[in-house]
Amino acid sequence: MTAIGWIQIIAFFALVLLLTKPLGLYLYRVFEGRRRPLPRIVGPMERFFLRLCGVDPSVEQDWKEYAFSLLAFSLFGMLVTYALERLQHILPLNPQRFPAIEPALAFDTAASFTTNTNWQAYSGESTMSDLTQMAGLAWHNFTSAAAGIGVALALARGLTRRQGPDGAKTLGNFWVDLVRAVLFVLLPICVVAALFLVSQGVVQSLAPYRDVTTLEGPRQILPMGPVASQEAIKEFGTNGGGFFNANSAHPFENPTPLTNLVELLLIFAIPAALTYTYGRMARDSRQGWALFAAMSMLFFAGVGVCYGAEARGNPALRGLAVSQSTGNLEGKEVRFGVAASALFATVTTDTSCGAVNSMHDSFTPIGGLVTLANMELGEVIFGGVGAGLFGALVFVLLAVFIAGLMVGRTPEYLGKKIEAREMKLAMLFVLVFPAIILCGSAWAAVAPAGVASLGNAGPHGLSEILYAFSSSAANNGSAFAGLNANTPWWNVVLALAMLAGRFLMIVPVLALAGGMVGKKVVSPGLGTFPTDGPLFVGLLVSVIVIVGALTFFPALCLGPILEETLAGGGRLF
Predict the structure, then answer these.
(1) pLDDT for 463-500, tens place per residue?
(2) Is this structure's pTM higher than 0.85?
(3) Mutual angle of helices 458-473 and 488-517, in 10-degree steps
(4) Residue burial 170-206, b: 16+ Cβ < 10 Å; e: rest
(5) Burial of residue 333 (number of CB atoms within 10 Å: 0-12, 13-18, 19+)
(6) Which residue in 150, 173, 246, 548 has a CA-CA distance of 20 to 30 Å to 482?
């Protein structure tokens, strides 16, 4: 590791910290303020779309209505995207005349983008038409991110509201939250980000692919397309789906270290800002900063281990006449280097963003272990847009419950008692996630159709399987690319894992919010455990790590940890 590498990491985090409060305050004004920003510019658009949809913004929904609206909207969006893929060969904006997508891959892709996963079992530049990329995939990048923000706000309202409007147990209105998230937050910032990316050399075109002669003489096809617009929302909405197969390692998506920094900031911007927004909703900004501090501790632990592992070089090459003075550069772009690649890998797996600027399958075993662990902790290290906040709040309730048991009092959070119903829903949320990953991985490890797609045998092959199901269940979308997931079996199984990882976890969260919103608020007493100080931050981090370790450590021992041990001649480090 070098001083320059750590300066890059610390500078990035300092910029995230600077953005957290102003963006968090902006989000609070958009969703909870009496007067929203940009009233003359965006206000008329909001009123038009809500009126067009027949939605009264003053009418709120309880948790069941909120959940039904989200599920119905997601199902409709998934069907539209599936239809676009199957019919793209007869639809316009297909200058390359790509054929229709086969059914299993179309189902996988539609489920992927509906769930904010953006897992791609295909090569985008040689599979999807411009219309499918824009009207299907990029559209989902906006709406799935907006839906995640809505769920986070619903849980935050359930925890922080003393009583719903008119005494009702309501959590807001899904359609209002959706429209406001798109119009006030995602769309304007993505327009600015896309224009910046274009200025740096990212492609934005509807022209056919270019056939050019290179300086060396051979001819080469240069893919064109609406890249910058999709790149902006794929990062800002923590989606991750790349226009090109190489994703953000492709120079047409991420050409320079400056664009790399901006894309990293876009990924972390909303998840970090939502912690401050939550603090404002709780009427105590320290509650939000406590969440930010816990997430930051886990982030630095992950990036430190990953950077250290990649800077040491590949353990499989120890003892050979190969210089690794610059670290493990296999699968990495030289224009980014080890530090920026390790940082990007950590950031993208901390969140539900599958964007990559290096190939995780080529990371060292410990570097790959970090990317796996980031997802398997529940992606609560800032997490996806909305998903990180509501996942972290579930762990907060678990931590409060444990603290209450230790002091012998009924657990309370923000003055509301945490009772048996809340713990059952929280544990359902926690247990669904590992069940999908571990049961799916076990099935794939013995199914002939599963192991037939592996690019490696032994512990690395198991890591590829674990990564595929971890990425799908966590709605991340990045991959250990040594696994060929574009087969009917893998497309269907991973699509089901994505849908389960999204909606079987969202519904308990909304039910939890519905139960909390109507509870009476009691004043804090001598036995109340404070949830805004360093002690609680340490407890929260411990709960997240212990739950993840108890669940996944045995599987990780058979994958990346065993691989590191074998490559290092029997030693772990």
Answers:
(1) 999 999 999 999 998 888 888 889 999 999 999 999 99
(2) yes
(3) 50
(4) bbbbbbbbbbbbbbbbbbebbeebbeebbeeebbbee
(5) buried
(6) 548
